[in-house]
Amino acid sequence: SPVLGFNMLPDCIGSFREEHPHVNVSLHVPDAGVVVQWIIAQQADVGFGWNSIDHPAVSSQMLCELEAVLAVPPGHPLTKKKVCTPADLEGETFLSFSRDTRTRHNIDTMLDRYGVSIYSPVEAYMSESLCAMVANGSGISLVNPLSAETLESRGLLTTRRFEPVIDMPLRTLRPRNRPKSMMCDAFVEHTREQLRTKLRES
To answer: What is the pLDDT of residue 1?
Structure first.
């Protein structure tokens, strides 16, 4: 995910190396499927992703539980609300996640449960793409808060809390059959703490 590879992880690596200056780190930001392939082949120590991976060679653990926020263009009528609900999506142009994602499945299930029909002419695989389209006025979307943060700080979109909660868990992916690395464990824990601090401050 670009928000992880271009924003969060570089900051975490920098602060981690202040504590461990002799550690060598190689950061890559490939497609999510490539990350999984590298972990299966033991070509990477740790990967980060939004989906749980069911594979005998992959150990997937929760890093942080995030909740989706509703991203809308600045000045949109929904900015007047503190908390938005499924009913607020009716009559809006809703930008969806791709059909093969777990988040899309969870959102569709929620909408069916509440009997809400939406107009969704555009879909995208990554939350960052959805945020960019919200910022250019293409519609509104449920996205992860990390992806929305940069554009919101620049005044290009606004987010609102959404209920019922749509969980967007961030997970670590590690080779199940590789001996544990104390330094890798330390980096994962450091990243977890940095993320918690970031979320508390936002």
So the answer is: 67
Q: How many CB atoms lie within 10 A of CB 200?
A: 7
Residue 186 sits at φ, ψ, to 5 deg, of -65, -40
Number of H helices, E strands in the chain: 7, 9
Residues pairing with 84 in the sheet: 162
73 φ, ψ (degrees, to nearest 5): -65, 150
Backbone torsions φ then ψ of 21, nearest 5 degrees: -65, -15
- Given this model, what pLDDT does residue 107 score? 96
Cα–Cα dist 40/74, whole Å: 43
For residues 107 and 73, what is the distance between their CA atoms, to the nearest angstrom?
20
Q: Using DSSP, state whether 186 is helix, strand or coil.
A: helix
CB contact at 8 A, 140 and 69:
no
pTM metric for this prediction: 0.86
Strand intervals (E) in 87-146 = 93-97, 119-124, 141-143
Provide the residue type at 154 as one letter: R
Query: Per-block average pLDDT, block size 10, for the chain (202 residues)?
Result: 83 96 94 90 92 88 93 97 97 94 93 95 94 97 93 96 94 92 95 88 70
What integer pLDDT is reported at residue 202 of this predicted model?
65
Report the amino acid identity of residue 202.
S
